[in-house]
Amino acid sequence: MDVHVAQARRTTATVLKQWSLPDAPAEDARLVVSELVSNAIIHGSGDVRLRLRHDDHELQIRVTDDSTAPARRRRASAAGLGGRGLHLVACLSLRWGVADGGRTTYAVIPTLTEAPPCCRMTQSSTDPTC
């Protein structure tokens, strides 16, 4: 599994560098790619496919496998090693979800100044509201 995830991260890093994406959203994107590809390998079936699309304001990450069971958040136990990936994806993304009958999990990363919903600042505080 690690080889495929590492390959997906390297490919993502190369593409985002070619697109001149700023460092902060590029790092968020690499983490999201790692989580989505890991989930597809562990919980999905068949070949795992990664697609990236960028416009002026956002980067869309789509990971597809052959399973029709949609990705879902799990409750992570304090001692457990898993169950936190989609929580990270949700925090780093403007939005995320499933498509294609459960075969594709996608996330949208802001590439300009808009922060993901859980990391926006409140007006009365300098702390993010996660």
UniProtKB/TrEMBL annotation:
Domain Histidine kinase/HSP90-like ATPase: 4-98
Pfam families registered for this protein in UniProt: HATPase_c_2 (PF13581)
UniProt keywords, alphabetically: Kinase, Serine/threonine-protein kinase, Transferase
Calcium in keyword set: no
Molecular function, one GO term: protein serine/threonine kinase activity
Annotated InterPro entries: Anti-sigma-factor_SerPK, HATPase_C_sf, HATPase_dom
Keyword Kinase listed: yes
Name the record gives this protein: Histidine kinase/HSP90-like ATPase domain-containing protein
Lineage: Bacteria, Bacillati, Actinomycetota, Actinomycetes, Kitasatosporales
